[in-house]
Design brief:
The protein is of the alpha+beta class. The chain has one domain (6-62). The chain is built from one helix and four strands, in the order E-E-E-H-E. The protein has a four-stranded mixed sheet with strand order 3-2-1-4, with helices on one face. The N and C termini lie far apart (44 Å).
């Protein structure tokens, strides 16, 4: 696996939640910068063997916006 993709969404209680697509990896943080660090740590824990670890981590950030018509 060369790449792992995380779906990042706003947490209703504040901050952000991230879930890996196709893997059982979840994490959350109060800021995007902290989330990036937590995602790296979670991937390292999930793939302890460096040769099995994805080389790239992609964050797909989804935001809902409501506008008045």
């Amino acid at each position: 696996m060369n790449e792992i993709i995380f779906l990042v969404e706003d947490d209703p209680e504040g901050g952000y939640v991230a879930q890996a697509i196709g893997q059982s990896i979840f994490t959350q943080a109060d800021s995007i910068e902290a989330l990036k660090e937590f995602v790296r740590d979670a991937v390292q824990c999930h793939f302890p063997n460096e040769s099995d670890r994805p080389k790239l981590i992609r964050l797909h950030i989804v935001r809902d916006e409501v506008i008045a018509s």
